[in-house]
Fold each of these.
Amino acid sequence: MEDVIIIGGSFAGLTAAMQLGRARRKVTVLDTGLNRNRYAEAAHNIFGHDGTSPRELLARAREQISAYPTVKLINAKAEKAAGNTDDFRITTSDGADIAGRRLILSYGIVDEFPDLPGFAEAWGKTVIHCPFCHGYEVAGKRWGLVYSSPMSLHGPALYSHWTDDITLFLDGHEIIDAERSKLEKRGVRIVDAPLGAIEQEGGSIRAVVLNDGSSIALDALYAHPRNRPSANLNEQLGLETRETPTGIMLAVNEMQATSREGVYAAGDLAMAMHSVTFATNAGSIAAMGALQSITE
Ligand SMILES: Cc1cc2nc3c(=O)[nH]c(=O)nc-3n(C[C@H](O)[C@H](O)[C@H](O)COP(=O)(O)OP(=O)(O)OC[C@H]3O[C@@H](n4cnc5c(N)ncnc54)[C@H](O)[C@@H]3O)c2cc1C
């Protein structure tokens, strides 16, 4: 019987594994190797590792964790979750059954790309989701933002510290006149027509092509696609969720405990703001929560 089974061995999950391994707890980490930022060549805004590739960060973490003899890192997909505190069961896609006293869910979220030619090719390169992660490199250049929710209307004020050349693509959505004139006063160009394609070469965006055939040249495009949990184990376990502007997150308390006793969640799966630092922080708290509940 494992003390903790961790599902998802990326930033949140491996941080939890390290903490539990150092506490000499028996841990199994299941992972399928699809960290959300795998599309980006470099990860930014990370303490001591600014500009390191996500692959290298994770490989180093795995190597360091493998030095802890009580932690098993297994490349496998968790397919089924059942059971209760002190007796959870995880079944992998290979048919293996693993028993654990606590669960930490850190399997992240999947971005659902819009059906827009060129979007997937440029995602994580010049079509990006977060200026703190990838804005500095394109500061002062021509930025676009695709409207995805009323939250998008706050983007231009934030982005104005990076560039004063901002185009908001409403992509067929309506906004009220007061919002439109506020943005225009800021110097934001507003384009109403739906998007037709992203013109790009090797991931570098050249322009946004509208469905009327016209195009607007850009150097970076911000977009916030809808997302969903990467697995449905949270549904199998009946966990409570909360709405976010782009999807859902698992509801957790200050120790990352979910609505079901013995089940903790961390990382993008359980927060509305997404970064490596937030994920590692939450992973560490989840490990502490799981450990405290075992010790008590
Ligand atoms: C394009 C892009 C670029 C980004 N750049 C940055 C950046 O520069 N700096 C920054 O701080 N943040 C960046 N982020 C955000 C960052 O990627 C996430 O916040 C972070 O990856 C969240 O870590 P996580 O551990 O919660 O989930 P993830 O890193 O997404 O990892 C989840 C893991 O769970 C595994 N998994 C899924 N389902 C299962 C299953 N059923 N069984 C077993 N394993 C499973 C996956 O394979 C994956 O390894 C970026 C995001 C994107 C989309």
Amino acid sequence: MSSNRTPFIVGISGASGTAYAAAVINALLDAGESVDLVVSKSARLTILDELGLSWRDGHWREDLAVLLDRDTANADVVTWSAGDFAAGPSSGSYPAKGMVVVPASTASVAGIAMGLSKDLLQRAADVTLKERRPLVVCVRETPFTRSTMEHMLTLDISGAVVLPCNPAFYHGPTHVQQLVDFVAGKVLDAIGIDNDLFTRWQGELGAARKAATGP
Ligand SMILES: Cc1cc2nc3c(=O)[nH]c(=O)nc-3n(C[C@H](O)[C@H](O)[C@H](O)COP(=O)(O)O)c2cc1C
């Protein structure tokens, strides 16, 4: 691992959709990017609920292998505890290309919009905004309350990309992973990373579906 690495920070908060986080991290690693990972306290519950995986700070590399379904022995990933305000991503002087919060709970959306910094995930997002680096917030909730919509508007005004976990169907998905990868691909588009995670709109009705699934 290079000493001058400049990672993307990935924050996993306690919203449903652990698979979205896994797809984004896998795609970043596949693209040769470094990842700094922050798992919120509540995300441990969603990870446990959705994967049956107890996230352990002391064994995070093994747990990451389960989360990502890949060998992580040499993966360029660093994790930071959600309660560690002395962690690198807590400071604007720590090098980072940007941050993705995926999935983002409405609580995290609120905390980031209001600058609460109640844990390292929210602090790192606040730092990303203040340093004018790309911040993508992948909110996962439905329906939305008025306050969540106001918080999303605040994030947009502050320069973040509000990118709901909200897949399209024009590429004719037949597997859940294709829906997950659609969202992950949009996240990578938002931070300027080339990817072919989903079949793009071709400018003609049905063409993307045919390209993805055949005639
Ligand atoms: C299994 C489970 C699923 C949840 N799913 C969502 C969700 O989809 N969206 C959401 O906003 N909150 C969801 N929550 C509630 C959040 O975890 C809760 O608001 C928490 O305070 C979020 O904290 P965090 O943003 O610090 O991770 C869920 C909680 C659990 C236990």
